[in-house]
Amino acid sequence: MARRILIVDDDPNMLVLLADQLRDDGYETTTARNGHEALRLLSGGWPDLVVIDMMMPGMDGLSLAREIKARADLPIIVLSAVDAGDSKADLLEEVAEDYVTKPYYYPELRARISRVMRRLNDRLPRRALVLGPGLTLELHHRQAVVAGKPVRLTPTESRLLYALAANLGQTVVSETLLARGWADTEDADPSYVWVTMSRLRQKIESDPNNPRYLQTVRGVGYRLMADE
Amino acid sequence: MSDSRAREADRLPFRTRLTLALSAVALLPLLAFGALALVLGLVFLPSVAGLGAVLLVVLLVVALLTVPLVLFLVGEILRPLRTMVASVDRVSAGDLSEPVLVPGDDELGRLADSHNRLAADLQRRSVQVGRMLEAIGAMSPSHGVEALVQRASSDAARAFDLIEARVVLGSAADHPQGEVIPGESRPLRAELRAGEEALGVLVGLLPATRGWSRADQDLLELFASEVAVALRNAQLFATVESQNAQLRELDAAKDAFLRGVSHNLQSPLTSIRAYADQLATDRPDRRLEIIAEQSERLSRMVRQLLTVSRLESGAIKPRSEVMNLATRARRAWEALGAGPVPFSLNDESDGWLAIADGDQLDQVLWALLDNAVKYGGGAAIRVDVRPEPARARLRLMITDYGPGVTPEDRLRLFERFERGREQAGDGGSGLGLYVSRELCRAMGGELVIEPAGDAGAAFTVELPAEQAHEG
Hints:
The complex is a heterodimer.
Chain A: E1 4-8, H1 12-24, E2 28-32, H2 35-43, E3 49-53, H3 61-71, E4 76-80, H4 89-95, E5 98-101, H5 106-118, E6 129-132, E7 135-138, E8 143-146, E9 149-152, H6 155-166, E10 171-173, H7 174-181, H8 190-204, E11 214-217, E12 221-224
Parallel strand pairs in A: 1-2, 1-3, 3-4, 4-5
Antiparallel strand pairs in A: 6-7, 7-8, 8-9, 10-12, 11-12
Helix pairs in contact in A: 2-3, 6-7
Chain B: H1 2-9, H2 14-44, H3 51-92, H4 107-138, H5 145-159, E1 164-169, E2 186-194, E3 197-206, H6 214-282, H7 286-312, E4 321-323, H8 325-336, E5 343-347, E6 352-356, H9 358-376, E7 381-388, E8 393-400, H10 407-412, H11 432-442, E9 446-449, E10 458-467
Parallel strand pairs in B: 5-7
Antiparallel strand pairs in B: 1-3, 2-3, 4-6, 6-10, 7-8, 8-10, 9-10
């Protein structure tokens, strides 16, 4: 069954073009010209993914993304001209699964979309996950609470932790982590997973050389453990 | 205690005792001397030769009798004085709690009373100073002027035990010193001055039963001046706060504006680019490629201008993601669409990944590669990527084989709107190197120009890196 994508953009040119391109790539698409129309469409049935333009008259992309997240944990990709220096970048990161800066290049967007689609079977409730007395994951806020202090996670780090947390206690092979963390256009290889895991340990483990939560299964992959 | 007090109360006044003692010391030896001389004289007088010996014996006996008498009297007189000295010592050491007990209405009694009053005054004032300091310490500019006025009023009443106290802002002349009427509560007044600036006045009412000395007034004025300083700080703080709020609003407005501009420029460029790509897929045409490349180029310039404005407000917050630097450089080169210019990539960084923000790194790479194409005059471009394990860094060097950079240009190269003089007419923004260096620094790296060599110009991007190994 084809995956369904809802595209919300006030620019009709973009809307038609993007819908055509995605349809050509086998997705089922619906389009909305603004936030209210999008919310109306959502009440009739959930798509698998929503692509939202950040700047729209009336309800802007950020407000719409929040409205959607308040109703269901749908993955959202935001198209935006916002860069890392923008005051809204942090807010955006909290609600958006990913954001693609404009002008986007379609193959890049397509790669990001298929990466998000790959993780659809991983389901985690949108709340804090307590792994032990010193570690709580708040992936919906892209942060971990380590020994009482919040630690920011990069989008990639939270994606990998999401995949591991969705399979808590089980080994997740490196290839799966690679596919969850990076889009195909990013040319990532297993070394990306290794370095990101090592950086994650620096952030969340009290003794990174002797990890308690984020364990390596040599030659296979990684697993996330909770304290007994 | 009560025994000794009762006993001491029976004693004669100090003046009388002193008089008696001095008289005794003067008269007793004389009387004793007379009496002895009389007795001995009656017994031994017939022998005139014995007179000298008699006198000697009399003197000795009298002296022996007098010494203990004098010691006893002196001790008696000094006893209350010693008590007082001990008490004054206690006061000097800061213990004001215990009064000196010297009974009677004589000079010593009055001295003790006077000392006790002084000690009580000192104690009261030290309590006042304590409360004052506490009140002053608790004043914070962030409380705001209104709250400070309220606090200072109640603190003043408490610290000085007043019936009421009020801090009035405005002209001090509106609140002149009230008249002091004996038997009625006494009006107090101290001006609030911070340096030259008069902020208002502190007025209060003292209970009729209490005295008000110069020292009390000095303390009140000291308190008033501290209150004035705190009030002025609060006013300044409020001003700074409102300016900050304005700046934040302006900043937010600027962000919104930039977001709008960026969106309004990038959205059509995205359409142009996408439609050109789509058309080219159906019917390949070099002209469509040029449309796509040039719209891409325009987008990059818009983004660079935005970055400059972000750099100026210090709002660049790079993300730290891992990436292969050589791969990133190759993709940046491909996106640049520089056509026939020969390009070689020499990657010696196997097993090393850079820690960088992808979008920002792309901006740096585009700018440097674009420069290399522009100033290399169509000659080959070479990229070298090498790790520097000791410093956990990756170094990416971009070399062109053009005319190079003149020594005078080298110094100004990284400044805003600077271009090499030779190439001043080519229409570049002059922002590329400035933006690139700032972005590299924001990512914890650096951008430098290599010393002039045989060939062209060489720029090196240095970035934090990690060696990859499973585990």
